[in-house]
Write the structure tokens for this entry.
Amino acid sequence: MTILFKKESYDIIGACFEVYNEKGNGFLEAVYQECLAIELGLRGVPFVEKPRLHLEYKGHPLKQEYEPDFLCFDEILLEIKAVKHLTPEHRAQTINYLKATGKPLALLVNFGHFPKIEHERFLLPAKIETPPGE
């Protein structure tokens, strides 16, 4: 089984662990975001912080835009949280971002959990093709 963006994911999650080891839990998400931007830069991980990604509906552009916390390697969405536990709503939000942007991979990282960060990987769901005549 091949893991999509294995090395890149490892680099990103490693940066998240380093930030958590330095800051611990209990800060606001904005603090972790700022620290993570520094750490990703120190590690040479290419990223854009809060990029504006355009959305569409049935081929029509939407006025609404999506701003993920980070877009790394131009392919990996990185969503960060600072909450006690990740919830199904956080996971659903991350999956919806994948669908909306067409990016292949998202990492959801929670800095608010104790005694260590929570992190999960999400792949872009495959479209289910309906056979003709059904």
User: Anything to note?
Assistant: The beta strands are 47-49, 53-57, 60-66, 70-72, 76-81, 105-110, 118-123.
